[in-house]
Design brief:
Keywords: Membrane, Transmembrane, Transmembrane helix. It comes from Photobacterium iliopiscarium. The chain crosses the membrane at residues 28-46, 53-74, 80-101. This is NADH:ubiquinone oxidoreductase. By secondary structure, the protein is mainly α. The chain has one domain. The chain is built from four helices and no strands.
Length: 128
């Protein structure tokens, strides 16, 4: 249900903001790049738990740097025509991408847990 609501909202926004397509697409692209890079860095903390706080701080600073650099570049190059459309697209797609990445990570964890249980039910143990 959540996925359907998010998809319908994004499609409706794309239709509503079709007049300012450049602003919408730049906000969408900048959100994808910033959130994806920050989550890639943040999820590295799972592999190295002793550096968790460092990874989270670097992830936040990376997202901030990409966002600020992108906004400065977009406004200096005069690419967008509607700052409101850019802001709405960036905010909503940041939320949507955050939701999809976290759901993907939860799905991967569930699959790993299920495989672990199946190995335990057979009586065989996997050496890592």
């Amino acid at each position: 249900m959540k996925k359907a609501i998010i998809a319908i909202t994004m499609i409706a926004l794309a239709i509503l903001f079709s007049e300012h397509f450049h602003s919408f697409s730049v906000g969408f692209t900048l959100a994808i790049i910033a959130v994806s890079c920050s989550y890639f860095i943040a999820y590295q903390a799972i592999r190295r738990p002793q550096y968790t706080m460092s990874f989270l701080v670097v992830a936040v600073l990376t997202k901030l740097a990409i966002t600020v650099t992108g906004v400065i570049w977009v406004f200096s190059a005069n690419i967008i025509h509607s700052p409101i459309t850019f802001l709405v697209a960036y905010a909503l797609f940041s939320v949507a991408i955050t939701y999809f990445i976290s759901r993907y990570q939860a799905h991967r964890r569930d699959i790993n847990d299920q495989q672990q249980r199946e190995i335990f039910h057979t009586g065989l143990y996997e050496l890592k």
